[in-house]
Specification:
It contains nine helices and six strands; from the N terminus they run αβααββααβααββαα. By secondary structure, it is of the alpha+beta class.
């Protein structure tokens, strides 16, 4: 039974090693490039930009002439003349059915400002979609960067725990030898076993956390093959970022952030849409022309010399003045004006949010930089303290409780330092 368990465990370890070897390692630059290429969010934002560009082309076509082919078949209850008379006393062809085919051209001359307002609205919407596309890319880049450094920090935490576990294994063997030589109490061995179990439990928990972070990273990268990549990099302290005045940072944020530019463009687009809706109160003027033929297949009265088919053309100017539309135009104006008010409030809310984010980012950088400096010193002190306490215990001049406390302090200091480095990198990326 023991041999079978050993063989099964060996096979599991080999499979795990093969899987780990097959995992793809990615640097931060490679991860960013992959995310921008495969992310569904980026693809969706690109599609919305293409949609806005198509809508702009449609709006621009509103001032262009249109040419249509039109066919008709009319059947009348009473006989009708095929064509109006061109002079007094002119005979005509009469019948109940008339077939017609025409080419019709319409040139808008004045639309009350509707076309220009629609073009302005579509142009601002395209600008907003473009800035939103950039913002989606920036947000994705930050999320990928944050998870990248958190994964590196988690790897450092696991390495620290592995070192602590190996050290505790050595300590257990040392205590076992002292117990057998009757130089240490058996309770020390029990305490070491409890500490070893606590370290193993924490190791399992941190490995689970790493697996979750790795899968979240794979989702951000747009990977759907089930293989989570491994972050390849270093948690070396980045160059200390300068923390300028918050007011200056706020000015730069309002000038450079694409989401703020997109919100301003949305306000302009809403204002233009309101102008387009108000154009419904104004008259329109257009030039129209048509040319086509008429046929009367079953003429009831056709004088000699008259054909049952002929062609006819016309050209003219058409003016329309809206008098009553059931308050439809008023409802559309109120709708667009309400949207414009909402867009302005969303812009104001975003400005407040940006101010909060700028001040928070500056504060986070300062705090993370201080944590890195302090925790780096703490790691050195904890290492030295653990070495001294362990040597005293090996010489019979200390207690195991001191050793366990010193080891706990060392693991805490090492994990705190790794996470402080990751927090500094993430804070700088957020800035």
């Amino acid at each position: 039974m023991t041999q079978r368990f050993f063989i099964l465990a060996t096979l599991c370890l080999l499979a795990a090693a093969r899987f780990a070897a097959a995992q793809r390692e990615l640097s931060l630059d490679e991860a960013l490039a992959l995310a921008l290429e495969r992310s569904p969010d980026v693809a969706d934002a690109r599609s919305r930009l293409a949609e806005a560009e198509a809508r702009l082309r449609a709006a621009r076509s509103g001032s262009s002439p249109t040419l249509k082919a039109r066919g008709a078949c009319d059947y009348w209850t009473e006989d009708q003349r095929l064509f109006p008379a061109a002079r007094n006393g002119e005979p005509g062809v009469f019948g109940p059915a008339v077939l017609g085919a025409d080419l019709t051209a319409v040139v808008p001359l004045y639309t009350g400002g509707r076309v220009s307002a629609e073009k302005d609205s579509a142009e601002w919407n395209r600008k907003a979609a473009e800035d939103q596309f950039v913002r989606v890319q920036e947000t994705l880049a930050f999320q990928v960067t944050a998870l990248f450094y958190n994964l590196l920090a988690q790897d450092e935490v696991l390495r620290s725990l592995e070192t602590a576990v190996r050290s505790m294994d050595e300590q257990q063997r040392s205590i076992q030898a002292l117990v057998e030589a009757e130089k240490a109490a058996r309770v020390d061995l029990l305490r070491a076993n409890v500490r070893r179990s606590e370290l193993y439990e924490r190791q399992v928990r941190e490995r689970s956390n790493r697996a979750v972070q790795q899968r979240a990273w794979a989702v951000l990268l747009g990977l759907d093959d089930g293989t989570a990549p491994v972050a390849r990099g270093s948690l070396e302290p980045p160059e200390a970022p300068v923390c300028p005045d918050a007011t200056e940072c706020m000015k730069k944020a309002l000038a450079q952030r694409p989401d703020y530019r997109a919100a301003r463009a949305a306000v302009m687009a809403a204002d233009a849409a309101a102008r387009s809706a108000r154009s419904g109160y104004r008259p329109t003027l257009s030039a129209q022309a048509s040319y086509g033929g008429r046929w009367m297949p079953d003429a009831s009265d056709r004088p000699d010399g008259k054909d049952d088919r002929d062609t006819l053309g016309r050209i003219g100017v058409v003016a329309e003045l809206p008098l009553f539309d059931g308050r439809l135009t008023r409802a559309r104006v109120e709708e667009q004006e309400a949207r414009a008010r909402g867009a302005r409030e969303r812009l104001r809310k975003l400005e407040l949010q940006i101010r909060f984010e700028v001040e928070t980012a500056i504060s986070d950088i300062a705090a993370a930089r201080e944590r890195v400096r302090t925790s780096e010193q703490t790691v050195g002190q904890a290492q030295e303290s653990y070495r001294i306490v362990k040597e005293k215990y090996d010489l019979g001049k200390g207690t195991l409780t001191d050793v366990l406390d010193a080891q706990t302090a060392l693991v805490t200091a090492q994990t705190g330092y790794a996470r402080a480095l990751a927090d500094l990198a993430v804070a700088d990326a957020r800035r």
